[in-house]
Write a structure and sequence with these properties.
The protein has 10 helices and 13 strands. It is globular and about 55 Å long. Helix 8 crosses helix 10. Strands 3-2-1-4-5-6-11 form a 7-stranded parallel sheet, with helices on both faces. It has a two-stranded parallel sheet with strand order 7-10. The chain is of the alpha/beta class and about 325 residues long. Bound molecules: uridine-5'-diphosphate. Uridine-5'-diphosphate (UDP) binds next to helix 6 and strand 8.
């Protein structure tokens, strides 16, 4: 059997491709390389086919579905920067929400009936209680979260109309890199905490700026739930099995269920790297909730998912190993 991976050259998509190739599956990747990296695609593997194009190009999707045996689409292809989405909301509703419409139209026309979707904790907005449950209210505080929530709603109605079943996976903070350091996190415009912290011991930055030291948390800095990218990839494999077993559409949180503050993350990075990391407390970043921690009990119970990277130091260590080996990301 085969899957289509939209956005398979991106951070999470490439880790998923690496994991699914351990199974006997054919993998077709479509990626417009707007943020993905050609170097992260395992071109040498004969079971991998790559199309460089945008999912909003129906001719390419139709060609992919007619030329390849695909039963499930794994959809990672989206813009994912909260700040950018506030500045340029139409980009997010066009690429993310519009991209989903194009993809589902082609799936309907080609009779492809299963999709697994990269959703986000940003659909919840400011949480009412911690840990966050899938049944909690969705009140996104930025266009990125809104665009992903719209995509979930579109899939719900499309399932009802055409029987295209979906699993939506709401990621908390994706982190780390593959254990063999062959692929990792490399964004042209880096906004994520762990790679930015690690730039200091790598000698690429003088200090890390903490966005806000006056939150209502024990040390005043924001708390997040960091989940290893290989554990995220594994949840997608379990979601494929779930849909192939004929189960109904559903939504699952993916996190470790444990929160770490920004200061705790910096201390953990100091332990991993063995270096002191200079820290400056700066202003709050607009739209950052104080705490985001997942309940992933539903994914554990229903999908049989069990994250293996439960130690924050181990998660940071995989990121550190990747950055030490690839200080310029895929450029090196
Ligand atoms: N953060 C920070 N300094 C940075 C980047 C991020 O203090 O240079 C904080 C950010 O405010 C948030 C946490 O680190 O509380 C995680 O941010 P990130 O952008 O990695 O992920 P997000 O939670 O926005 O998805």
């Amino acid at each position: 059997m085969g899957v289509l991976v939209c956005g398979g050259a991106g951070y999470i998509g490439s880790h998923f491709v690496k994991e699914i190739l351990k199974r006997d599956e054919d993998v077709v990747i479509i990626d417009n390389l707007s943020t993905g990296h050609l170097e992260s695609i395992p071109h040498q593997n004969p079971r991998v086919k790559f199309y460089e194009d945008d999912i909003r190009n129906p001719a390419t999707l139709d060609e992919i579905f007619s030329a390849n045996k695909i039963d499930t689409v794994i959809h990672f292809a989206a813009d994912a920067l909260v700040g950018e989405s506030v500045e340029n909301p139409l980009k997010y509703f066009d690429n993310n929400t519009g991209g989903m419409i194009s993809l589902l139209e082609s799936m309907r026309d080609s009779n492809v009936k299963q999709i697994i979707f990269s959703s986000t904790a940003a659909t919840y907005g400011e949480p009412k209680s911690i840990p966050i449950l899938e049944t909690d209210p969705n009140e996104p505080t930025n266009p990125y979260g809104e665009s992903k929530l719209m995509m979930e709603k579109i899939m719900k109605w499309v399932d009802q109309a055409y029987g295209i079943r979906f699993v939506s996976l709401r990621y908390f903070n994706a982190a780390g890199a593959s254990e063999d350091s062959s692929i990792g996190e490399a964004h042209l415009c880096e906004t994520h905490l762990i790679p930015l912290i690690l730039r200091v011991p790598l000698g690429q930055s003088d200090h890390i700026t903490v966005f806000g030291g006056d939150y209502d948390t024990p040390d005043g800095t924001c708390i997040r739930d960091y989940i290893h990218v290989t554990d995220l990839a594994d949840a997608h494999l379990k979601a494929i099995d779930y849909l192939r077993a004929g189960k109904s559409s559903d939504i699952f949180n993916l996190g470790n269920g444990q929160g770490f503050s920004v200061k705790e993350m910096i201390s953990a990075a100091e332990k991993v790297t063995g270096q002191k990391i200079k820290t400056v407390i700066g202003d709050r970043r607009p739209g950052d909730p104080a705490r985001l921690v997942a309940s992933s009990e539903k994914a554990k119970k229903i999908l049989g998912w069990n994250p293996k990277f439960t130690s924050i130091e181990k998660i940071i260590e995989t990121a550190w190993n990747w950055h030490v080996k690839n200080p310029k990301g895929y450029e090196s």
